[in-house]
């Protein structure tokens, strides 16, 4: 039972959620179709999109055949929230990248992008044989699939809060990541040796994101944790400047500056709104921001690996989940024995739970699935592990190769909104006016990263030289 909700009420709310999700999904698909003129450059224009994840010097291009290492990342940069279709010079295949995930593009993908040696930039052109927008099954199904993935990602936050109410956060996170690793383990065996070290490093930052998220959900509303997690729109451009020395003036990347300013305004409204102002902020908000740093850094590294090796998307994901499971397992082990007088419990009331025979079995796998009192928690662990973490990535990878950059960005940007919807219906969380306003601004910031910079320069009359 969650926050006084009986099973009948919870079942009724679940049915209501499904009905509202269906209508909202249809609305978003229609809106996305009508917004294509705003988010895409004209099909009659040859569009140059600086995207320095692939902006390499001629000497760096020759190094593509060398073994991959993290040092090679310094030669690349990107606005992470944008996704892009680019020709892989080594294999001749096209790839689409979005939010740290890349996939091999279909021949009828909306955009074609190639590397221009003269400008060291990616030149994108509309694909003449792309599937035309409409209500055909071929056009709608990948967009519907990616939207479903975004919806499922949104359920992670309220379900994480639900698990934390019954289990120690360390046990909940460890169970979820272990199940996800088991589901993706066949792909782990396919990971190329030259990617293992970098993928493991990336997995460490992924683990930082998951651990921070779980700790934040102990005493912070699920919607707030999700909204603050969207701060990756600031993390990735900051890393592009610090690591890659990427030019990031307003003329170079107006969409990034608009997104950053909108996101900061949203965070300000979210944290300072209400009668208590900054007094409402707590350690949960700090952990939520650290979540964005962990995931943002992971996206920054992962996109570079997958862009060169699109066939390795799922093996890299499997390594990320594996590293997260290991780190979460270490956390759970130390927390379970009361290490450092319970400092790793993250506010949980279950101290040294591995030493308590009455709860030890139920808080670990497989005992969690045999404890009648934790049946709903076991379902949540299985759902977040098998479905929203493992299967969702498979679905996202399959849909991504059939979409354009702007479409993928808009659909994935809806994740915090779904988190707020499910938090309300599943665990009874209520958004205040200030929370809703701040969250809306943050989501709009995510959408802003999909706006074509050339279109913005034209509308804002920004003088720009591609030197």
Structure summarized in a few sentences:
With 467 residues, this protein is mainly alpha-helical.
Describe this structure in words.
- This protein has 467 residues and is mainly α.
- The chain is 58% helix and 6% strand.
- The chain has helices at 7-34, 36-39, 58-62, 137-166, 169-188, 196-216, 222-229, 232-244, 254-272, 283-308, 313-336, 375-400, 405-412, 415-427, 433-448, 453-460; strands at residues 47-49, 84-87, 94-98, 101-104, 111-116, 121-126.
- The strands form two sheets. Strands 1-6-5 form a three-stranded antiparallel beta sheet, with no helix packed on it. A three-stranded antiparallel beta sheet has the order 2-3-4, with helices on both faces.
- The model is unreliable at 1-5 and 7-92 (pLDDT under 50).
List the helices and strands and how they pair.
Elements: H1 7-34, H2 36-39, E1 47-49, H3 58-62, E2 84-87, E3 94-98, E4 101-104, E5 111-116, E6 121-126, H4 137-166, H5 169-188, H6 196-216, H7 222-229, H8 232-244, H9 254-272, H10 283-308, H11 313-336, H12 375-400, H13 405-412, H14 415-427, H15 433-448, H16 453-460
Antiparallel strand pairs: 1-6, 2-3, 3-4, 5-6
Helix pairs in contact: 1-14, 4-7, 4-12, 4-13, 4-14, 5-6, 5-11, 5-12, 6-10, 6-11, 7-10, 7-14, 7-15, 8-10, 9-15, 11-12
């Amino acid at each position: 039972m969650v926050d006084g909700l009986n099973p009948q009420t919870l079942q009724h709310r679940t049915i209501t959620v499904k009905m509202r999700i269906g209508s909202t999904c249809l609305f978003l698909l229609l809106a996305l179709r009508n917004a294509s003129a705003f988010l895409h450059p004209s099909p009659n224009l040859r569009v140059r999109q600086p995207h320095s994840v692939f902006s390499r010097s001629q000497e760096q291009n020759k190094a593509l055949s060398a073994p991959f290492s993290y040092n090679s990342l310094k030669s690349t940069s990107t606005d992470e929230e944008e996704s892009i279709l680019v020709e892989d010079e080594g294999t001749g295949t096209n790839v689409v990248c979005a939010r740290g995930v890349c996939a091999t593009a279909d021949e009828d993908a909306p955009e074609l992008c190639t590397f221009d040696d003269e400008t060291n930039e990616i030149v994108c052109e509309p694909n003449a044989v792309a599937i035309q927008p409409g209500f055909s099954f071929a056009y709608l199904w990948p967009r519907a699939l990616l939207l479903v993935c975004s919806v499922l990602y949104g359920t992670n936050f309220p379900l994480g809060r639900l698990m934390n109410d019954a289990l120690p956060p360390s046990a909940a996170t460890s169970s979820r990541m272990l199940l996800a690793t088991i589901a993706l383990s066949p792909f782990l065996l396919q990971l190329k040796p030259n990617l293992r070290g970098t993928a493991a490093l990336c997995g460490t930052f992924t683990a930082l994101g998951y651990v921070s998220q779980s700790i934040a959900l102990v005493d912070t509303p699920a919607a707030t944790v999700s909204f603050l997690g969207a701060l990756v729109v600031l993390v990735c451009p900051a890393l592009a400047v610090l690591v890659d020395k990427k030019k990031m003036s307003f003329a170079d990347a107006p969409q990034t500056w608009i997104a950053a300013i909108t996101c900061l305004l949203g965070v300000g409204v979210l944290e300072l709104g209400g009668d208590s102002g900054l007094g409402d902020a707590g350690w949960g908000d700090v952990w939520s921001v650290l979540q964005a740093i962990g995931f943002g850094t992971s996206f920054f590294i992962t996109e570079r690996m997958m862009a060169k090796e699109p066939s390795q998307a799922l093996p890299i994901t499997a390594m990320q989940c594996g590293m997260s499971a290991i780190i979460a397992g270490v956390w759970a082990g130390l927390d379970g024995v009361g290490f450092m007088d319970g400092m790793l419990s993250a506010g949980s009331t279950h101290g040294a739970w591995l030493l308590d025979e009455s709860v030890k079995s139920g808080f670990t796998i497989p005992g969690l699935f045999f404890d009648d009192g934790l049946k709903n928690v076991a379902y949540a662990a299985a759902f977040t592990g098998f479905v929203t973490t493992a299967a969702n990535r498979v679905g996202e990878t399959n849909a991504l190769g059939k979409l354009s950059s702007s479409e993928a960005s808009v659909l994935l940007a809806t994740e915090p909104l779904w988190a707020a919807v499910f938090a309300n219906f599943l665990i009874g969380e209520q958004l205040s006016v200030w929370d809703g306003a701040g969250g809306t601004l943050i989501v709009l910031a995510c959408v802003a990263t999909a706006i074509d910079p050339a279109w913005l320069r034209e509308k804002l009359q920004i003088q720009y030289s591609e030197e």
